[in-house]
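Notes, p. 3: input format for complexes.
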Amino acid sequence: MKEKDQLGFIHRFIPSVHHTQGRSMTLLLLHGTGGNENDLIQIARMIETAGASILSPRGKILENGMPRFFRRLSEGVFDIEDLKFRTYELADFLQNASKVYKFDPEQTIAVGYSNGANIAASMLLLRPEALAGAVLFRAMVPFEPESVPNLSGKQIFMSAGLHDPIIPSRRTKDLLYLLRKTGSNVSLKWQNSGHQLTQSDVSEAREWLSASFTA
Ligand code: MLT
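Output follows (215 residues plus D-malate):
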């Protein structure tokens, strides 16, 4: 079996066009419920135009045939034990993938949508060293941590829909307040939209990413 087949997640890896020149930002793409490893690649290319590497796993949980990154009991009610287990599993996958594909694990930025954004937020809380930052589209507090982790130095961009029927704005704000308490550099943009991503999510994420990571 090839090394890449032993990583434990169905995934795609697309190396950076600059890989051999020491430019090694990697985007960890985390799709929403019912998505797969192909879903966010086009969006990633729109928000990061310099050609970063892309690692895009498929969530292992199936909910009525729809891939997710962790179990939920009902909409917005998470199975916290499974969420934590899956968060560690995903962080281990990321670390192992960095060795197989030879990218710099310290320059990885998660780009998550909905369920993928929620597990990215969980990874920031449970395995902060795994990520340099995150773009969180339509995220909420994944769980209440027992103690607030130190996320100083992490760059986090949140983008939320004012009329999102799945992620209530209060739960997005709770995540913002929690991330502020960690000392991270977090910003939140409200979109005049629902749960679906819009052009404005993409353009504001692009602006934020280029200002935060390519000085
Ligand atoms: C979740 O389950 O993570 C959220 O409810 C968003 C979603 O529907 O995926």
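Residues 3-212 form a domain with the Rossmann fold fold (CATH 3.40.50.1820).
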